[in-house]
Predict the structure.
Amino acid sequence: LGMTAGSYGSPLQDTGFTVDCDDGMSPQRVLDTRVFLRPIELRLIGTCPGFSIRRDDVKVTAQYDEACPGATINGGIEIIGADRVELSCLMVTGSIEQPAVNVFGGLVTLNEMDISHNDATGLSINAGAHVTVNHSLIHFNDDGVFVDKANAKFEQSIINSNRGTGLTAMSNSSVEFLVSTASWNDGTGMSIQSGSSLNLVNSDVQSNGLTGIGLTGGSTGIIEAAGISDNGRINTRRSGVFLRQNASATITNSWLARNNTGVGATVHSSIRLGDGVQIFDNRSRGVALNRDSAAVILDGAVIDVISCDGEESSAAISDGAVIGLIDCPDLDF
């Protein structure tokens, strides 16, 4: 492999190597080598071709990481069935048909990543994978993030300016979204489907082209200390939070403003609005109930307008809630 400094490396440790892609080297050659014991650490220089990781205990980062991203991957990274994989300080770009970072199973951490300008999904998480994304940027891709039968956690990360949906979760997936932002995506900011769950805390969902957060198909959401505003940038009839088909959500200490509707619920869905919720200045109404949907509005919630588009909806409103107008002639209190 050529153990010289600046190539496949003077070892950083027994299994750590510098890979200078600008000098014609390839991360894949090191990863495919069987003679090295794990863990393996690769420090990349320059612009590298895409590669696949199929072994445990692999760390790939930039050699010069003072200002992330410090190295570029042109064509994507695939991680298949590998545990304790860490990618740090890399830009992943130029993927056309496959997701830029594509994870199938395993335990993966992404730190200070820039996943951008791909003609495919930025990050795809599948097949029971557990992926943690820290201090990363996912932007200017087709869709931002896709989670299918898997678990994703985002901390201090941004999903924005993607051409489709910011984040989609389906098939009983789990998403934690902490101190992060989903904004300026042309589609829905976050689409939580088919029995999946969302735990969103201290985060913003703003200025997306369609709905801010959509929950459907029995999905559940816990939204706390969030700013959900200015969604429906492309289709102005969309809501900040919209629930349908037996979805449910609890919202506390959050504000929803300048959407078409702050919160909309339909088709046997339910919403619980707790202390500190402020819903105001939306283009149409604060809360809209339709088709057997239900709302529980607790002390401390402040809502300008509640309206109903159909019969058989219900609401339980605490005395300590502040409601400006209730436009529901058939509402069952």
Remarks:
- The longest strand covers residues 40-53.
- The radius of gyration is 23 Å.
- The CA atoms of residues 56 and 82 lie 5 Å apart.
- Residues 1-13 have pLDDT under 50 and may be disordered.
